[in-house]
Design goal:
Number of strands: 8
Order of helices and strands: EEHHHEEEHEHEE
Number of helices: 5
Structural class: alpha+beta
Radius of gyration: 15 Å
Distance between the termini: 21 Å
Largest sheet: 8 strands, mixed
Strand order of the largest sheet: 1-2-3-4-5-6-8-7
Helix content: 25-40%
Length: 162
């Protein structure tokens, strides 16, 4: 973990939005594990086919990981990759799609941006819905890359580009 990237917030601090979802920081792996292991979600994000367990990401002050959620069916995992730079991973259940997903995604990014100069993501080329989603929540295409596990990916940036 990059020491300067640790986010020091009160445990359970909520981001509240008058006309949108309430975003909170997760303090244990229960919700993210439940959503990540839903059949339709698991198929899209588990390349090895085994159940996912995010327990190693907690406590987040020790791991350089921040997990945010709407408290029900949408999570985002942010891993520190440099000082004030975070890689984001969205994990949304099948009950959080369309307008609800876009509003939740925007609220999650809004919660995280004060703590980041840059948030970036890598989305598999074949996942057209996720690539569209990234654009809808404010992601700017930033090129392409190839990862051993995910294969060809499109890169997205949120926040500044410096």
């Amino acid at each position: 973990m990059h020491a300067a990237t640790a986010i020091r917030l009160r445990d359970g601090q909520d981001g509240r939005y008058a006309d949108g979802p309430q975003i909170r920081r997760e303090l244990d792996a229960a919700l993210v594990n439940r959503v990540a292991n839903l059949a339709t979600v698991h198929l899209a994000i588990a390349y090895h086919g085994q159940p996912l367990d995010w327990s190693a990401a907690f406590p987040s002050e020790d791991t350089g990981v921040v997990v945010l959620s709407n408290g029900y069916d949408a999570c985002a995992v942010f891993a520190s990759t440099a000082d004030r730079v975070w890689q984001g991973h969205t994990i949304f259940g099948p009950t959080c799609r369309g307008r609800s997903a876009i509003e939740t995604g925007k609220a999650i990014i809004a919660w995280m941006l004060p703590h980041a100069d840059l948030i970036w993501g890598a989305t598999p080329i074949g996942n057209r819905a996720a690539r569209w989603f990234n654009r809808q929540i404010g992601g700017r295409p930033a090129g392409f890359d190839h990862y051993d596990v995910e294969g060809d990916v499109e890169l997205f940036n949120f926040g500044s580009t410096h």
